[in-house]
Specification:
It is a single chain. Helix content is 41%, strand content 19%. It is an alpha/beta fold and 218 residues long. The strands form two sheets. It has a five-stranded parallel β-sheet with strand order 2-7-1-8-9, with helices on both faces. It is globular and about 65 Å long.
């Protein structure tokens, strides 16, 4: 009788997925994203193309792919972006090529985009997309977290709160919604979503060959 511990692990090739986390500022999306990237070697952050100047401490090709406005326009016209937008006079976009290469390798890509970016991703790559919206436990808690970050003035905090209502109105467009009361619990829930989505039959590219290798369907 074989010992399961001594048996080689069965590996079935799969196609990666695009995991989107969206939330209003202060709901905890960035904290959850960092935890996922630190814990899971099979997921990496999407690297965007941008026209904004490089900031101190940033690295070309790791933090962003820096291009001028003309190059960005050329890429947009050529359909090279999965999603793109202009924010405060700077343009940002997700290039198709690098993402597709990662997905083919059976690895996942994490996206930090808003509801508009998520809509574009759904239009261009719905089968690869898994979208999660993060909510704070309450409006009061959301405002408290923004104040506790101590990154913004009171005026900016109030602008973020005003925008949060509009952002949260798009919650029903997402595949999953998580109320982020406790970070560890929220990270665990996102990890559970990843496990389930990775096991979907359509994403397990090598499953057909595996089953046929067992003499099924021959």
């Amino acid at each position: 009788m074989s010992n399961d511990k001594d048996s080689p692990a069965v590996t079935i090739s799969r196609r990666g997925l695009m995991l989107v986390l969206s939330s209003p500022s202060g709901a905890g999306k960035s904290t959850i994203s960092r935890a996922l990237l630190n814990r899971d070697p099979d997921i990496s952050m999407s690297v965007s193309v941008t026209t904004r100047p490089m900031r101190p401490g940033e690295t070309k090709g790791e933090d962003y792919i820096f291009v001028d406005q003309e190059k960005f326009k050329q890429m947009a016209v050529a359909g090279e972006f999965l999603e793109h937008a202009t924010v405060f006079e700077n343009s940002y976009g997700t290039p198709k090529g690098p993402v597709e290469e990662i997905l083919k390798q059976g690895r996942d890509v994490l996206f930090d985009v808003d509801w508009q970016g998520t809509q574009q991703l759904a239009e261009n790559a719905r089968k690869d997309l898994v979208s999660v919206f993060i909510l704070a436990p309450s409006v009061n808690e959301l405002e408290k977290r923004l104040h506790n970050r101590a990154q913004d003035s009171e005026e900016v905090v109030q602008k973020r709160m005003a925008r949060a209502a509009s952002e949260m109105s798009h919650w029903a467009e997402y595949d999953y919604v998580i109320v982020n009361e406790y970070v560890e619990a929220s990270v665990a829930r996102v990890e559970a979503i990843l496990v389930a989505e990775r096991l979907k039959r359509d994403r397990q590219a090598g499953l057909g060959d595996f089953v046929r290798g067992m003499g099924v369907g021959q």
